[in-house]
Design goal:
Distance between the termini: 138 Å
Radius of gyration: 39 Å
Number of helices: 7
Shape: elongated
Order of helices and strands: HHEHEEEEEHEEEEEEHEHEEEH
Oligomer: single chain
Structural class: alpha+beta
Helix content: 25-40%
Strand order of the largest sheet: 7-11-8-9
């Protein structure tokens, strides 16, 4: 009898548990518990979102080209702060305007983020002139470029020191080693010649930009003459992209010229002018 009672209890318990799990009451409470957990998760995520300001990022305005007095109201309007951390000299930019910013324009940041600014110096950057005399033209050219200057015209005068730099000139002033001059300005060289007018091959400059031609002419100890831009050149960017379509002296007729000769250049953006044979200037 006792054995029978003990054996029937597990069976009854299993049947009761099964009935309870499948009952509407259990399913109702399970659904309520699931909804309660889901609600707690949503509330927690919303509080975290509010605390971290998740998703509240705004694009940084473009401050480049603006002065500090113009930046301040824009920064206030966008809930940003700014800090000027450096200054540098950029050719073509107005003194006192922003030339660099971190983060860059369009980068998304949160409110009260600091934007670091670099402004264009009100004073042009200057460099110390290195020793350029009593060395070869090629050595002088390398030193000039390394310190941020531009090689201007090259002229020759009789001297026993052949192909050595005798003078460095800017405008009408002769420069000496150690003088402070504006970075990016040009300096002219006076070169000694012991055998009268020396000659050099005339390069073909067709299809080159002005900067490419200037470097090639300097390497041949020749000078850049008159620059003539056609009607396709409108903006400053056009002058940088323009290509040479004609030169004087004419490369087809003249292959050898004296050192120091000035080469006149015609420039265009019209590719047809460059591709088609042109009637070069003749004397």
């Amino acid at each position: 009898m006792s054995y029978f009672c003990f054996s029937i209890i597990p069976t009854y318990f299993k049947m009761s548990l099964k009935n309870f799990i499948t009952s509407r009451t259990f399913l109702k409470h399970l659904l309520l518990a699931f909804l309660l957990v889901l609600l707690l998760i949503i509330i927690t995520l919303q509080r975290l979102k509010s605390y971290t300001r998740h998703g509240e990022a705004f694009p940084v305005p473009n401050f480049t080209g603006l002065r500090i007095d113009e930046i301040e109201p824009i920064a206030d309007e966008n809930n940003l702060k700014y800090e000027v951390i450096d200054s540098m000299h950029v050719d073509g930019a107005e003194p006192g305007v922003v030339v660099e910013q971190v983060p860059e324009a369009g980068f998304k940041v949160k409110k009260n983020r600091v934007v670091f600014l670099t402004i264009n110096s009100t004073v042009p950057e200057k460099v110390t002139l290195p020793k350029l005399t009593d060395i070869s033209v090629r050595q002088a050219q390398g030193l000039i470029e390394n310190c941020g200057l531009i090689l201007g015209n090259i002229t020759y005068q009789p001297s026993e020191y052949n192909n050595l730099v005798l003078k460095v000139v800017q405008g009408s002033k002769e420069l000496t080693q150690g003088e402070i001059i504006i970075k990016g300005s040009s300096v002219d060289l006076v070169i000694g010649s012991s055998s009268g007018n020396q000659e050099t091959p005339l390069p073909n400059l067709t299809g080159l930009t002005y900067s490419e031609a200037q470097a090639l002419l300097a390497g041949q100890m020749l000078n850049t003459g008159v620059l003539i831009y056609d009607e396709s050149i409108i903006t400053p960017d056009d002058t940088l992209a323009a290509l040479i379509w004609k030169q004087y002296p004419n490369y087809q007729n003249t292959r050898i010229v004296n050192l120091g000769t000035s080469i006149d250049l015609w420039l265009t953006l019209d590719s047809l002018k460059i591709q088609q044979p042109t009637l070069q200037v003749t004397e």
